[in-house]
Amino acid sequence: MVAPKQLFLGIAAGVGLGLAGRLFAGDSAWFAFAVQNVAHPTGQIFLRLLFLLAVPLIFAALVTGVCELDLRHLGRLGLRTLGYTVVVSAIAVGIGLALVTIVRPGEVGGDLAGLANGLAETTKVPPPPSESGVELLIQLVPNNPVKAAATGDLVGILFFALLFGIGLALTPGESAKRLREVIDGLYQVTMRLVAGVLKLAPIGVGALLFTTTARLGVDVLPKVGAYVAVVVVGLALHLCVTYPLILRFLAGRSPLAFFRDVRPAMLTAFATASSAATLPAALEVADARLRLPRHVSRFVLTAGASMNQNGTALFEGVTVLFLAQAYGVELTLGHQALLLVICVLAGIGTAGVPAGSLPVIAMILATVGVPAEGLALIVGVDRLLDMCRTTLNVTGDLVAAAYVAHAEGMTSEALPGDKST
What we know:
It is built from 18 helices and no strands. The chain has 421 residues and is mostly helical.
C-alpha cells in the first residue's frame, strides 16, 4: 500500500495547484487544456482501474468470507451488522437534523428558492427514481447477476455473492473445495492488482483533486456556505465524537491508534468520493493494519460499501431540511421523524459511487413536498461534500468491522503500540 505521506502530498499538490491555476490562469487556454486533456483523463483512468477491480473483489471477498464463517453464526453476524448500521446511521441523521434546525441555513443568503429555480434551467438535476417502495424492494434481488455486475448494481452483486457463498459453504465434496480455492485465488490475484494500482494513488488522487478544484465554481458558495458548513460540521461531529465512543466502549480499541491506522483508506475515500472504489484499500487496511479477522472484515466491509453509509444518511437529511427551509416548506417534528427513518433506509440502499445519493434525495424531496429543482443549489458543491461524506462512510465501515469482531469475541492480533487490543 502507498505510504500515507505520499498520498497526502498528492492531495495537497492537487488542491494547491488547482486553486492556484484557477486564481491566476483560470481564463487561459493552456490551463483549460491541462485540466481537460491531462489532469482529467489521468484521474479518470485511476478511478476506472479501481472500479475495474471492484466487482471481482467484492464477489471473491464476500464468497470466501461466508465460506470461512460457521453458517450457524452467519445470521447473527448479519443481524449485528444491520443493527449497528441502523442505530449509528440514525445518530448521524439526528446530528444533521439538529444542526439544520439550530442554524437554519435555508434562511441565510436571500432568495435561495429563486436562485435554485434559475440554476435548474442550466444545471442537470437528477430525476427521482420512478419505482415505488415495493418495486425497489423487489429489485434488491437481481434477475441477472451478470447484468448487475455490468451496470454497477452493488446491492445485486452483494446479494448474489452472499447466496453463492452460502451455497458453496453447504456443498460438500472435492469439487466444491477446489472451487473455493479458485475463488480465494481470484481474491489474492485481485488484491495483488489492487496493490499495484494503489502505488499510482498519489498521481491519480492528485489529478482528481486538481480537476475538481480547477473547475469548482465559487459564485454560489456565499449563498450556500452555511449549508456546506452545517454538512461538514455534522460529518466532523460524527467522525470525532460518535466513532471514538464506539471504538473505546464497544470495540475495545484506542481511537487514536485506529484513526492512525486507517489513514490510507480515509485519504483514498476523500479523493475518489466512492465507497466501492475505496473498498480495496479498506480491505487491505483491515488485514494489514487493523489485523481484523479476515472473514469478518470481508463480510462487513463488502456489505458496508453499500449499506453502512452514515455520511450519506446525514447528508441526505441535512439537504432535504435545508431545501425545505429555502422553499418555505415547514416540516413538523413528525415529518422530521419520518425524514430520519427515510434517510436511514436510503443510506442503506444508496449506490456507493460518486453522486449516488442525488437521485435518492430527489425522491425524498418529492415525498415531503419540496421542489426537486432545489437540488440545483447543491450540484456545484456536491463533489466536495461527496468527498467528505464518503470519508465518513468508509471510516464507519472499518469501525463497524472492529465492533462486530469484538462483539463476536473474535480477537485480532494486537498492533505495535496499541495496548487496547
